[in-house]
Amino acid sequence: MALAKKATIDAAASPRIQNDPALSRLSRVAADNRKTVPTHARQQKAAERIASVTNQLAAGVAKSASAAEELRKAMESIASSAEESSSASEESRRAITAVNSSLLQAKAAKVPFVVNR
After folding, report:
1. Quick one: three-class SS letters along the chain?
2. Which residues contact 106 (CB under 8 A, 6 or more apart)?
3. Rounded Cα gap, residues 59 and 18, in angstroms
4. Which long-range contacts (CB under 8 A, 24 or more apart) does 95-98 make?
């Protein structure tokens, strides 16, 4: 069912409404309200977006802090393993030096070197 306009606006009434100071002030207030409502809505929308981005940024900072802590633990583990490896290498070097010294002494004394199995 289509809508049909049945009433007409009297053209003579409109100058009277425009000249009425109370109605004119009300229309100015209504116009001001129409201007501020979208502005307030835009401000609210912007505030919500800023809050959302701030939350996302905080989550990203928390994730990076967690990753930095994991990296610190891994670096400590690597450093500990490297220290152990260094100790083992030093111990091996001392053993090789001792064997080399023994071989040189045996060679100097002309003693046959026999490896016991």
Report:
1. CCCCCCCCCCCCHHHHHHHCHHHHHHHHHHHHHHHHHHHHHHHHHHHHHHHHHHHHHHHHHHHHHHHHHHHHHHHHHHHHHHHHHHHHHHHHHHHHHHHHHHHHHHHHHCCCCCCCC
2. 112, 113
3. 57
4. none
- In this predicted model, what pLDDT tens digit does every residue of 41-50 receive, in sequence order? 888 899 999 9
Split at pLDDT 50, 70, 90, the class of 2 is low
Please report, for the chain, the start and end positions of each structural domain, with discontinuous segments joined by +: 20-108
> How do residues 79-104 score in pLDDT, each as one tens digit?
999 999 999 999 999 999 999 998 88
Single pTM value for the model: 0.48
What single letter denotes the amino acid at residue 69? Answer: E
